Every structure is written in C-alpha cells, then in structure tokens.
C-alpha cells in the first residue's frame, strides 16, 4: 500500500503537542467474533486495520485502528491505540472532561503547573455540576473551593470520604496554582498520584452510582426470571 505521503496533524501523546504524523504502514488483522443475537452464536469475520505512523518531530511510534483500509479518508479519524491516552468515561460532563484533557496533555509535556491548575478547575467544575457554583455564578458567597466541597458533603451530594479526597486533591493542586517559592511547586512525580486520585473521585461521583444501579437492576431481573422458570417447572410436573 502506498502510504508514504499520507499525514495527519494531531496531538502527539508522546509529547503533548500537536504534531505532523506520517503513516508508514497499514496492517490488516482478521479476527473471528461471535454474534450472539437471539442467544445463538454465529461466527462473524471482522477485519481491523492498524495504521502505524511516526511523529515527524519526536520520531516516536503511534498506532491507530480503523475498520477500513481507505487510509486517505480515515487516517485523521482513526482511533489512537498507542500510546494509550487516559480519558474520562463518556458520560462525564463535557467541561470536566475538557479540563482533564488539557491537564493530561500538560502532564505529557512535563508542565506540572498547567496540569495542577486544570485538575483544580475540573474540581471546581464538579462542584458547579453537582449544584454548588461559586459566588460569580450564583453560589451563596462561596469564593473558595474548600467551602464548596464542604457544602456538597453537607447537602449529601457526595459521601464524606469523597469530600476528604477532593480536599486533599485541592491541597495537592494548590502547590502548582500559586506564586510560591520553588520548593512548594507541584513535583512532576506527584502528578501521577494526583491523576490517579482525580480519576478515583470521578469514578465515585459519576461512574460507580450508575454502575451499581445497572448491576442491581440486572440481578433483580435475573432473580425474577429464575422464579418464573421454577414456577413453570412446577406447573409442568405431572402427578
Ligand atoms: Zn512526537
């Protein structure tokens, strides 16, 4: 396949900047998947095309995946597989996801100050989203993030342990957000801890409650089905 002249301009996750990326190879991969429609398993052949590219600046490898070998039209739209880019789950409010995206790009390019500031802004956006805006946005005199987090817990919008986690995160990010002596700036090695901790907070607020409800509903439905099956079996028994 002639791939030498096909390029895209997008984020190089290895550096955290937009870069020109050149496609160097397309590798089709044939797999057999199961189609489970109507409870019957039918094998379905699927082809995934792996687009292997190189960043023109750092020369690092990038791997994308797509369902077509029409690279000219699809290289720019293909999904990045490597290096993996940490993203928040789909149902997270857009503003929070955007701050997090900016933060992760900053982390990649070793800019802990921008990283910490954007994680802090994401925490502020969580407060607004859950119903405690700041004083500029209709909040009752809440100028600082700490009291807004406390208000979330007071209104039982978050559990107490999430309140503690959010306040620790705020303190961690404050090292990077203020004009303080160099030794109080956020340590780049500390960024990964803040990143993991922020993801845990997001999971507990936006993901776990929804997942728990879905799981509960599923268990209840399975219980009902089992009960109906038993009742049917009983009615079929002949004496
Ligand atoms: Zn690069």
How does this structure look, described?
There is one protein chain. The chain has helices spanning 71-74, 94-108, 112-130, 145-154, 160-177, 188-236; strands spanning 7-12, 17-35, 42-55, 61-66, 79-82. It has 239 residues and is α+β, with helices and mostly antiparallel strands. The chain has a 5-stranded antiparallel beta sheet, with no helix packed on it. Strand 2 (17-35) and strand 3 (42-55) form a beta hairpin. Helix 2 runs antiparallel to helix 3 (112-130).
Keywords:
single chain, 239 residues, alpha+beta, five-stranded antiparallel β-sheet, 5 strands, flat, binds zinc ion
Mean pLDDT equals 87
Which class do the helix and strand fractions yield?
alpha+beta
Radius of gyration: 25 Å
* Cofactors, ions, other ligands: zinc ion
Number of helices: 6
Please tell me what the overall shape is.
flat
What kind of sheet is the major sheet? 5 strands, antiparallel
Q: How many strand units?
A: 5
Portion in strands? 15-25%
* Major sheet: arrangement of strands: 1-2-3-4-5
Separation, N- and C-terminal Cα atoms: 72 Å
> What are the secondary-structure elements, in order, as H or E?
EEEEHEHHHHH
- What's the structural domain tally? 2
């Amino acid at each position: 396949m002639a791939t030498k002249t096909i390029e895209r301009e997008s984020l190089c996750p290895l550096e955290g900047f937009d870069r020109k990326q050149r496609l160097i190879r397309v590798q089709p991969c044939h797999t057999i998947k199961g189609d489970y429609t109507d409870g019957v398993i039918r094998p379905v052949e699927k082809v995934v095309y792996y687009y292997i590219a190189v960043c023109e600046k750092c020369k690092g490898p990038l791997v994308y995946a797509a369902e077509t070998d029409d690279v000219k039209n699809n290289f720019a739209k293909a999904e990045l597989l490597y290096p993996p880019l940490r993203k928040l789950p789909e149902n997270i409010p857009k503003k929070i996801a955007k701050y997090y995206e900016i933060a992760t790009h900053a982390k990649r390019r070793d800019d802990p100050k921008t990283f910490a500031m954007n994680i802090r802004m994401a925490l502020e956006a969580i407060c607004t989203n859950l119903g405690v805006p700041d004083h500029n946005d209709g909040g009752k005199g809440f100028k600082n993030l700490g009291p807004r987090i406390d208000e979330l817990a007071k209104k039982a919008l978050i559990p107490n342990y999430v309140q503690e986690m959010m306040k620790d995160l705020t303190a961690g990010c404050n090292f990077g957000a203020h004009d303080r002596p160099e030794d109080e700036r956020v340590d780049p090695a500390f960024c990964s801890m803040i990143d993991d901790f922020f993801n845990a907070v997001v999971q507990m607020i936006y993901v776990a409650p929804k997942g728990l409800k879905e799981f509960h509903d599923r268990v209840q439905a399975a219980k009902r089905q089992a009960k109906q099956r038993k009742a049917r079996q009983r009615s079929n028994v002949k004496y």
